[in-house]
Amino acid sequence: MKNIAVIGAGTMGNGIAHTFAQSGFKVQLIDISEDSLKKGLATITKNLDRMVAKEKISEADKANTLGNITTFTSVTEGVEYAGLVVEAATENLDLKLKIFKQLDEACPEDTILATNTSSISITQIAAVTSRPSMVIGMHFMNPVPIMKLVEIIRGYNTSDVVTNTIMELSKTLGKVPTEVNDYPGFVANRILMPMLNEAIETLYNGVAGVNEIDTVMKLGMAHPMGPLQLADFIGLDVCLSILNVMYDGFKNPKYAPCPLLVNMVNAGKLGIKSGEGFYDYSKSRKAETVASQFS
Ligand code: NAD
Fold first, then answer.
1. Which residues contact 131 (CB under 8 A, 6 or more apart)?
2. How confident is the model at residue 293 (pLDDT cuts 50, 70, 90)?
3. Among 68, 87, 223, 251, which residue has the fewest nearby CB atoms (within 10 Å)?
4. What is the model's pLDDT at position 294?
């Protein structure tokens, strides 16, 4: 397996492409948006520059990594030699079903189709393909080049061979794969998202401000980032989609997204990627609390 296609060049897609390319794989990075591809490549270059500056990799490693990545603007291009496709497009069920139908037609019959979805049913995605035993969840964590975990999600029909292949492949990337079953939110987001949602609810109820909530969790619970900062980092639209998938999937009100989260997404405040969420990122990457909104 030398050729890996990555669908989506956003927050996760560029990190996944970076990680495979740095491990010597040829990566076809595919996004319908030219702008996303440009930004994705710029992010990869910036992250590699940082690694060179810290003497973790050489200039030659950087050049080889970038040389391993080619870009395309259509899901059906660049997948004809792929041993594996990792889909990391927007967290939306209908979009993922459409992409997997297209991939199933365009890819060789032995290509494994993986999705980086945070919460959507692998079994449901697999069902629109003619190869459900070869569809699997490969849930990387953000930022992908740094985070060790890959949550490997077996759909109802995913075969042992495919699961073992993806577990071993993840190890060759220097990751620690962990196998879980296919229920809404899997393990990572089933536990993380209710906490982030509760932090937003705490803010919504006026119990404390953004800085105070994040400080309590950072200093009190030794979390490296406060929950509101983490929500901004993940993307508030992504958090909302995941909560909605769990709310629909379990029919349990405990997963209902906080109205403030819904409002912010409707207002286009998506966190770091839009320049503003619970913090303001417009002037620099250093977060300033959006105090006027929440004090
Ligand atoms: P994002 O919004 O940053 O990027 C999504 C990309 O998909 C965009 O560049 C968009 O142009 C592209 N896209 C949309 N439709 C497409 C299509 N038809 N073909 C090709 N590209 C298309 O989103 P993200 O945060 O990178 O999330 C991607 C996936 O990874 C989602 O399933 C998400 O749930 C999952 N995920 C996200 C995080 C996180 O922290 N953001 C963590 C783990 C998993």
1. 104, 109, 113
2. very low
3. 251
4. 33
Q: Which atom of ligand 1 is nearest to the CA of 40?
A: 9
Closest listed residue to residue 151, CA positions, set 178, 133, 130: 178
- pLDDT at 295 exceeding the cut of 50: no
Q: Is 7's C-beta closer than 6 angstroms to any atom of ligand 1?
A: yes
Residue 155 CA to chain centroid, in angstroms?
18
195 lines ligand 1 (CB under 6 A): no
**Centroid of ligand 1 to alpha carbon of 98 (angstroms):** 14
Give me the mean pLDDT over the 230-241 stretch: 96
| pLDDT computed for residue 285 by the predictor | 54
Task: Identify the band that residue 31 occupies on the pLDDT scale cut at 50, 70 and 90.
Answer: very high
Q: Is-cis flag, bond preceding 143, omega within 30?
A: yes
Ligand 1 within 6 A of 89 CB?
Answer: yes
Determine the distance from the C-alpha atom of residue 156 to the mean position of all C-alpha atoms in its chain, rounded to a whole number: 22
Which of 73, 79, 84, 68 is CA-nearest to residue 19? 68
Per 3-state DSSP, the chain is made up of helix, strand and coil in percentages (nearest 5) of 50, 15, 35
pLDDT single digits (tens) 15-30: 999 999 999 999 999 9
**Cβ atoms within 10 Å, residue 164:** 12
Whether pLDDT at 144 is above 60: yes
Tokens of 264: 């912010």
Count H helices and E strands in the chain, helices first.
Answer: 12, 10
